[in-house]
Q: What sequence folds into this?
């Protein structure tokens, strides 16, 4: 019929905290990269920069997608934690 799945809520909380830290670090680092690119763009305007700009834009798009997916996964895990806590509460009320 149904298989019971044992889930360690603390392990989920740990991975959520790690992912949130990863996201904070990534955002901080990318803000520095964006700032540096902006500064560099003011001083560097030749064919080499124009050649590299599409590469930079692809890297930036990859960052944005990684950020979006990480946020989505954090949200999913937080929803799972809420469900776990609700189920645990219901089970405790039955006892």
A:
């Amino acid at each position: 019929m149904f298989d019971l799945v044992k889930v360690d809520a603390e392990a989920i909380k740990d991975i959520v905290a790690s992912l949130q830290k990863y996201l904070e670090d990534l955002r901080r680092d990318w803000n520095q990269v964006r700032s540096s690119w902006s500064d560099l763009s003011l001083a560097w305007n030749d064919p080499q920069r124009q050649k590299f700009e599409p590469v930079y834009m692809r890297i930036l798009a990859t960052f944005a997608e990684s950020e979006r997916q990480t946020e989505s996964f954090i949200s999913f895990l937080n929803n799972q934690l809420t469900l776990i806590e609700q189920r645990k509460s219901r089970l405790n009320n039955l006892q």
In short: The radius of gyration is 21 Å. The longest helix spans residues 47-94. The chain is about 85% helix and 0% strand. The chain has a mean pLDDT of 90.
